[in-house]
Amino acid sequence: MQPETFSLKSTYKRLPTCGKYLAQQNRKVFCIATMAMVSGCTGFGTVSSSTEPAGRAESTKTNVLEAGAAMLQTDSPLDPMNVYLVGFHPMKDDPSHQMEAHHFCTQANEDFAQCALFDGNTRSANLNGIEYIISEKIFESLPESEKQYWHPHNGEILSGQLVAPGLPVKADHELMKSKMNSYGKTWHTWDATHGKPGESLPFGEPKLAWSFNRIGEAKKGLVESRDKRMDINTEERRNARQDLLPLAKPQSGVDALKGQFERPTRSIPGVVDKKTTNQSEALSESDSR
């Protein structure tokens, strides 16, 4: 999922740690390596799943079949899913149920992306959900009955919590800029929270996930644990994204879970609920009459 660089040894030696990770991958994007040298990277660490699925170990026959499929079957819909994001989701019907989410996404067009969600970023990670990402333009075209399923993204971006691991800082910044004012529809199918062994199978109904829209909504240690394991600095990302504030528009769903979290919370500059804005405008019009 990280773009490959050309293999000049001298360039490789000058890369920061995350840039070296980029250089080891099997893609060919020279500009990414250049940005890594100039600006450094967002951090990257392997995150193994803490949940072991129920079932027997794979047989030799199964391994052989898998190897054959990997060599002979091509054009997989998973091949383009090379945009990697890591963030956090509370469940809409139970905000105390929160998890770290590793997104592997493909951008279908400028207005639509789709992601497979995992509980880690290694080969043993478990698939535990899906997310569709749409632009503000498409969201506004949805019927009101559908909008309740789509969470806003500005809080995730401007808080610094949503990160594209391993990318040069400038590339991460441009990616986040492109997702400003977007929305996501996320269903988690498996309760597999990092660090806490979940169920050995994806039991029960899928859960509609939401986004954090105020500082303090994430449980204590949730963000900090991710940052430590993956060498990510959320506060640094938040500060670096302040220039995105002028792009932020009021979004639907920002206050959907307001007041339902255990800890005291405070607002994130630029993250405003559209209903609050509409009410303020209505009051202003009333006062001016």
Automatic annotation (TrEMBL):
- Compositionally skewed regions (Polar residues) per UniProt: 277-289
One Pfam family name from the record?
DUF1264
Q: Which InterPro entries match?
A: OBAP-like (IPR010686)
Q: Any stretches that span the bilayer, and where are they?
A: none
Location of region: Disordered: 249-289
Query: Its domain of life?
Result: Bacteria
Name the record gives this protein: OBAP family protein
